Amino acid sequence: MQVFATFDHSSYLELAIKKLEQHGIKDIYSVPLDNRAEDPALFDTIHQSDGTSLINKGMILAVMFSVVGASRGFILEWGPIYWGLIGAVAGFLLGFAIDFTLLKLRNRNKRLLKGVKSEVILIIGCQEEEGKKVETILWEHLANGVARVN
């Protein structure tokens, strides 16, 4: 039987390993996960999308500004077509800037967590009757998750 557990880098991990060794379990393997080295891509590709769109507010504001620009263009010198296009471009740029700023503010909080250590996967090989005891020890030492595989 194998027991898998994930831990944060902490002294609780070391205490859990020490307690398992005291109970006679020697088949313990730990794998530290690497932190992300680079920032995620800002723009989506056709093959990968994170679900964040930077043009939603831009399109809404482009429509609103173009309608206002076209209606005001009847009394302005360049006419409704030019003022409608100017309003559409201005609205799109304003909406894009708002979405981009909000995205950067959200990602700044995630970037602050970049220095935090990632998790460690602990793999323990044990007998069937020791499985419950191993699982209890891991939960007592603040494991993030535990799974038993026969």
From TrEMBL:
Q: Which UniProt keywords apply?
A: Membrane, Transmembrane, Transmembrane helix
Write down the superkingdom of origin.
Bacteria
Q: Where are its TM segments located?
A: 58-75, 81-103
- Full protein name: Uncharacterized protein
Biological source species = Cytobacillus oceanisediminis
